[in-house]
């Protein structure tokens, strides 16, 4: 996860409630940034989306289920081989249009991560993963642009990793099997950002599909698409604008507690455990490990129930499961924060009558966004109400936008 304070693209406020600039618009912007910076036109263009998770939180590293969708917010990149005679061994220059920052590193062995949590670490981590597979492009230049809010729990870092991997595939003409590509990006996050994340974010950015959620079984790594094409409902994302910090140890600590609980229950992962088993062993477990496990076991069940409810277009049941998920993340898993709780409370106050079926925190937690399932006819009123009431209660200005399920990473035509 990138922790630099959010740098919003220039037109972000103008499109705050809508789908954001289209990939075609972003392609034009990044093309211009590229040629301005490197003095030649770009040859390759790629896009990779962020994601929002509808339900199934902190279940991926417990071999459970998750139910994310890719969102209409992207990292886009433009690239071309180096115009001047490139130095040997090959290097890449990446220019971030948002941070107005250039970074250069070797492509053969991949340079080591720097101590900072800079955006370039994610890029370098993926390059190192390709080098480890003996896929080494010739020297090239790239420009990067992102509309995925940073630090919002919408996987801006996974989008950056997957965009980098897609670019390297385009430049080398060597396509990795999709699962391997996602896992390589996850490894980059582990080794170059120091976050021991699960597989959800990178799989979402690779496998996203328009009008569909992804029911991902994190044990088998198999994906089942759950259609979400109904015009009746819209997914609303509200950013508390409180920034999370997952590498401060809290995420790793939760992960360790889950493993301790699984070991005490003598199962390989909490996916194998039932609530009955857990309750029978309660005295063997420290209270917080017990509660972490209770969240995970119940959340895995809620996720498959929600997938079935969505397939049946039963929005009320889906929404109820989302509220239950939030309460469990707040009370048992303890990864919410007052601002996220306020956003969910405000959504609950609007209720089904006002068009909110359900709402919960999404992503790793400790800040970031809530995801709400809303009636399309009411979504703009709901968005406005949430923003105004949240600001009145907290003094913090939030952002909100609706998104349809979007397509996963792809190469754009020049
Ligand atoms: C972060 C991680 C994911 C997942 C979520 C919590 O987003 O990157 O792998 O564990 O937290 O569900």
CATH architecture of the domain at 17-227 and 406-412: 2-Layer Sandwich
CATH fold-level assignment of the domain at 17-227 and 406-412: Ribosomal Protein S5, domain 2
Q: What's the arrangement of strands in the largest beta sheet?
A: 5-4-6-3-1-13
Distance separating the two termini: 30 Å
- Total DSSP helices: 11
Average per-residue pLDDT, rounded, comes to: 92
**Major sheet, described briefly?**
6 strands, mixed
Question: Count of DSSP E strands?
Answer: 13
The chain-level structural class is alpha+beta
CATH class of the domain at 17-227 and 406-412: Alpha Beta
Low-confidence stretches: 1-15
List keywords for this structure.
alpha+beta; binds alpha-D-galactopyranose; globular; Ribosomal Protein S5, domain 2; disordered N terminus
Structure description:
The protein is α+β, with helices and mostly antiparallel strands. The chain has a domain at 17-227 and 406-412: 2-Layer Sandwich (Ribosomal Protein S5, domain 2), CATH 3.30.230.10. 40% of the residues lie in helices and 21% in strands. It has 11 helices and 13 strands. The strands form 3 sheets. The chain has a 6-stranded mixed sheet with strand order 5-4-6-3-1-13, with helices on both faces. Strands 10-11-9-12 form a 4-stranded antiparallel sheet. A 3-stranded antiparallel sheet has the order 2-7-8, sandwiched between helices. A hairpin with a 4-residue loop joins strand 7 and strand 8. It is globular. The model is unreliable at 1-15 (pLDDT under 50). The structure holds alpha-D-galactopyranose (GLA).
